[in-house]
Amino acid sequence: MTLLFITGTSTDVGKTIVTAALAATARVAGAEVAVVKPAQTGVAPGEPGDLAEITRLSGITRTVELARYPDPLAPDTAARRCGQPLLTLAETAAAIESCADADLTLVEGAGGLLVRIGEFTLLDLAQKLDAPVLVVAAAGLGTLNHTELTTRTLQSAGVRCAGIVIGSWPTTPDLAAECNRTDLPALTGMDLVGTLPAGTGSWSAPQFTAAALTWFDPDWIARHLHPLG
């Protein structure tokens, strides 16, 4: 099983859409893909969450969600507010390992790298499973600081950064965005391996899947998503 974690430099930077694009790209190439979202917040029971959106856009159907909390907060806070037990590192790792028969398992975190998913962070989980982490960054002002903080934290923890993806590239980028696209890899020392256009989450599934491959560096895709090729 190839394992890839997806984190963000903050919330609302495009993690779910990036995860869907990776899943679609791998599925079209013939890989069996599983997607794990340990904790979903801000969604009531029975309502479609991030995994439903990933399924709609990518066509993959093997998904795992371990906990769901109604308040749109960090998962540990949301769990305490509704009286549910916190997820543990052991049970979450076991759920991911149960997907070992898939060719590729994508694990989408909540918010940023150090947000508490339960009794642990995504960084703790990546360390336990020895998994690389793909960082989804914003395009505009502030992203250099947020992204470098994230990549330095990964490096300090001995967790491999699989690269940086800009999760929502504006139709008309401003000067900051244009400069950031150059500066992100230069300042972090990590490759910019993908850029997703803004608004792709509203696309139809066929349009999304057809375009997804073009958003990532082909060599990076070959190394990370096509291990059997």
Helix- and strand-based class?
alpha/beta
Superfamily (CATH H level) name: P-loop containing nucleotide triphosphate hydrolases
Strand order of the largest sheet: 3-2-4-1-5-6-7
Cα-based radius of gyration, to the nearest Å: 16 Å
How widely separated are the two ends?
Answer: 14 Å
Profile the largest sheet: 7 strands, parallel
Characterize the overall form. Answer: globular
Secondary structure topology:
Elements: E1 2-8, H1 15-28, E2 33-41, H2 50-58, E3 62-69, H3 75-81, H4 89-97, E4 104-112, H5 122-129, E5 133-137, H6 143-157, E6 161-169, H7 175-188, E7 192-197, H8 205-212, H9 218-224
Parallel strand pairs: 1-4, 1-5, 2-3, 2-4, 5-6, 6-7
Helix pairs in contact: 1-2, 6-7
Describe the protein's architecture and organization:
This protein is of the alpha/beta class and 229 residues long. Helices cover 40% and strands 23% of the residues. It has a 7-stranded parallel β-sheet, with helices on both faces. Helix 1 runs parallel beside helix 2 (50-58) and helix 6 runs parallel beside helix 7. The radius of gyration is 16 Å and the shape is globular. The model has no long low-confidence stretch (mean pLDDT 95).
